[in-house]
Amino acid sequence: MEYALSPAALSELRRPRPYPAVSVLTPTHRRGPDNAQDRLRLRNGVAEAKRMLEADPAVLRERRLDVARQLDQALSEVDLAHAEDGLVIFAAPGEHHVWSLARPVPERVVLSDTFLTRNLVSAQAAGRPFWVLSVSADRATLWSGGTDRVAEARTGGFPLTRSRDNFDAERRQRIGDPPSTFRDEDTRRFLREADAALAAVLRVDDRPLYVTGEPAALSLLAEVGGATRDAVHIAHGGLAHGTPETAWQAVRPLIAAEARRTTDSVARALETARGRRAFAAGVDELRQSAREGRVRLLAVEENYRVTVRDDDGDHLIPAASGDLDAREDIVDEIVEQCLETGAEVRFVPDGALADVEGMAAVLRY
Questions:
Q1: What is each CA distance from 100 to 71, 86, 153, 156, 212, in whole angstroms?
Q2: d(CA 165, CA 171)
Q3: Angle separating helix axes 185-204 and 215-224, nearest 10 degrees
Q4: Do 129 and 113 meet the contact criterion of CB atoms below 8 Å apart?
Q5: What digits encode the pLDDT tens for the residues 245-295?
Q6: How crowded is the C-beta side of 140, counted as CA atoms within 13 Å?
Q7: What is the pTM of this model?
Q8: Helix (H/G/I), strand (E/B), else coil: 316
């Protein structure tokens, strides 16, 4: 079950597939009693996908059986004990993927020649992903961070480790080499390798970066490295061998401070846009502006959701969940369209955009 979406992974998920590419979306819950029905809801979604495969004359028997097997394998990989707010299963001939999202999704099953990725894209943007590199003399651990946690990232060769033989003080004194953990050439080489490995990760998935370690480790890394030079350094040792929770607690105050700065910056940008008549609000106007590529900055409250449907013309009108042709993920659709046209998307705390009903934009023209 995957949690962090990289640009490379998203690009791979968005490429066309041989028909049918199946997307099963279901809301999940982090704790009881709301999570009691998550397992049943998920099984019902997979069963509905199989029913649709069976009923579709365009799906040959061999391919239908293949995709059904992929759905069963995906279902077996779901760990609802670590569920967040939404779950997405993708299945196509010869492949399947399972994604846990820290953002609600509508209950939906779709057969197409591409996977339905807009909810992943929106969840990724809302999660404000970042990296944390924790270094010591014998280990470099990379953490992938989001809204409310970090998890160890086993990518790009991380974690990097080396033998602790060189740190045996008694052995080094016996051979006339006094211990100096962060001054010996082996440690310099190790941290240089960690910096190079991180640079490769950032080329594929560039995010804000925080680096933790003892002051001596941070000083040496700044001297020998390049990728970590502009990172936020946190003098906190032990995290290279630590747990995700200890790493999260070390960076949490800085993440919260950055979120407050972002909220203030967004508020100023929207106020300026009002004065320049470069301001848009309302789902209908925002969808149209996003389609035309006019949005420069989109601001969305973290938990803002709205259900709409198309009227007989080219406009959206309010709808109830479950209504025929209701579109429950229109917010995620707008977010994805804005990102595709190069707009900046910023999620802010609930209530920050109360005067515009949860979502607004600064326009390019």
A1: 16, 6, 16, 22, 27
A2: 9
A3: 70
A4: no
A5: 999 999 999 999 999 999 999 999 999 999 999 999 999 999 999 999 999
A6: 26
A7: 0.78
A8: strand
